[in-house]
Write a structure and sequence with these properties.
Layout (H helix, E strand, L loop, with lengths): L34 H7 L6 H6 L7 H7 L5 E14 L2 E13 L5 E8 L1
Antiparallel strand pairs: 1-2, 2-3
Pfam families: Ribosomal_S5
GO molecular function: RNA binding; structural constituent of ribosome
InterPro entries: Ribosomal_uS5 (IPR000851), Ribosomal_uS5_N (IPR013810)
Length: 115
């Protein structure tokens, strides 16, 4: 019985899809995923204002790190509990509001709820 732990298809017999994520263990830090990321890495786009000028969507955090990097400062504005009534009782989650910017006109707001 101990030998057939992988019989369900995945590691430790949990079924398919519960293994390690990511595929190959290569260096992913320098590899942009989007076309915009490749343009930034190749220095075709020289400033963040060029992205705003053409209303381009920034889908990789590494693009912001490339342009603003060390000058970014973040501040947690508020962490508030939110509750959902379920059949078994109440489920409490926490909602966080975070502001980030470089004190030079670039500002971002993040909102996320966690368990």
């Amino acid at each position: 019985m101990a030998d057939d732990a992988g019989a369900a298809g995945g590691p430790e017999g949990r079924g398919p899809g519960h293994g390690a994520r990511g595929g190959k263990a290569e260096d992913k830090e320098g590899m942009p995923v989007t076309k915009l990321g490749r343009l930034v890495k190749d220095m075709k786009i020289k400033s963040l204002e060029e992205l705003y000028l053409f209303s381009l969507t920034i889908k990789e955090s590494e693009i912001i790190d490339f342009f603003l990097g060390a000058s970014l400062k973040e501040e947690v504005l508020k962490i508030m509990p939110v509750q959902k009534q379920t059949r078994a009782g109440q489920r409490t989650r926490f909602k966080a509001f975070v502001a980030i910017g470089d004190y030079n006109g670039h500002v971002g707001l993040g909102v996320k709820c966690s368990k």
